[in-house]
Specification:
Largest sheet: none
Number of helices: 11
Order of helices and strands: HHHHHHHHHHH
Helix content: over 70%
Radius of gyration: 21 Å
Oligomer: single chain
Shape: elongated
Length: 192
């Protein structure tokens, strides 16, 4: 893999605007990704993502988004996931991109966008119950971040309180109690 990366680097040094430059950037990025040289891989993916749609765009956006998310650069991951969502026709890829937008958006305080993408994801045909519930959870958390006394958040958390995932159900019940407490409904909060 290292020798292939070096060959692509040599090509790009010799022909930086050559006919195969996009391919060389992509394949060098893939080599660096496999070698866990994520910063260098992201540089090559960015070259691809700055240009028009091509055969390498989707995979470059996926990898760049994953790298940015792992680096906890959530605002950048949000941008990459948005690009991916806007430029794919594959529903499974779009579903993953929307979930990436939701997670990275929540972590970068883009709560309005999280709520909108959650609605879009939930409305997609064929979305698994688990994915829909995760989107619903992030939507509820986003609404709560806007308004710590929101009845709408209580409504969403109540839907999640019977979730198959015990952690999600327990957290949803806790959040309902928290909101009721913030509303000054101490007895209801205690019961919840």
């Amino acid at each position: 893999v290292e020798s292939a990366r070096d060959a692509f680097t040599n090509y790009l040094k010799t022909y930086p605007n050559g006919i195969f430059a996009i391919k060389a950037h992509y394949y060098r990025g893939e080599c660096n990704f496999r070698l866990k040289k994520y910063g260098e891989a992201k540089e090559d993916y960015n070259v691809i993502l700055e240009g028009p749609w091509n055969e390498f765009y989707e995979n470059s956006a996926k990898h760049a988004a994953a790298i940015a998310f792992d680096e906890k650069n959530y605002a950048l991951a949000f941008d990459y996931y948005q690009k991916l969502a806007a430029n794919t026709n594959d529903n499974k890829v779009k579903e993953g991109a929307y979930m990436g937008v939701i997670r990275s958006g929540y972590n970068s305080n883009k709560f309005k966008e999280v709520s909108l993408y959650a609605d879009s994801l939930i409305a997609m045909p064929g979305v698994s119950e688990e994915t829909a519930n995760e989107a619903l959870y992030y939507k509820a958390r986003s609404i709560q971040r806007f308004d710590s006394t929101s009845d709408k958040a209580i409504e969403l958390y109540t839907k999640l309180s019977g979730n198959k995932n015990g952690d999600v159900a327990a957290d949803a019940r806790f959040r309902v109690a928290e909101i009721l407490y913030n509303q000054g409904k101490l007895k209801e909060a205690e019961d919840a």
